[in-house]
């Protein structure tokens, strides 16, 4: 009888270790846990807590320390956070500087002033659909799982040409493209014949849809070690970026709510920099990456 009790106790302990705590399997190959608990992501021991709202932005408190300062880790400036759930389109922000638009409404924005530490609030938005939020995810566009990158050319006015979904398991379909000079003047297709139109800096906003077979995407992500992300380039720093470009960003994680049992993500990406590179010779890459999700429940 004592042996039976000991065996049952061991099984309970093993189950608790496997079913909870850091490293728990989340959606589509990402790590997953509840808000308020810690996960180790990209070399950072990270905890997200206190999800709340301010002026149609989701606010989340982040505390993180380097798990091993001497080991490889993501740069603090590369960490991006996004809404996990059912928004109409991905809503993401780079953590550092994400609360600038809210000003004094966020008195303690995320800061990396202490070496090896991150502490403060991340602001993600705008988003009016409060019921669409099930949690927050984090990833780094600079993190690439080995041998998972596939790149495609993208150019104005075509945008992204048809691609082979068997390359990555992800079907990318162009929905629209808009290009602008740095002074905000939009470019029409007729500008292709005007050499003066393509001087200086500029940017291009690509609208597309990312779709996949849910079961296959899930299996591939688990085997790969994480979901896919889209990265548009070049993304050189420049002045004059429009609000549509700033809202889109140059990367997006393909991490839909697993409860939907579908992978359909309408997204926008922005390329910017020297106008010829950003508008006529841009690229969109599909890349596997590591990610983590903190859910409300």
TrEMBL record:
Keywords assigned: Signal
> Which N-terminal residues, if any, form the signal peptide?
1-25
Keyword Signal included in the entry's annotation: yes
What name goes with this protein?
DUF732 domain-containing protein
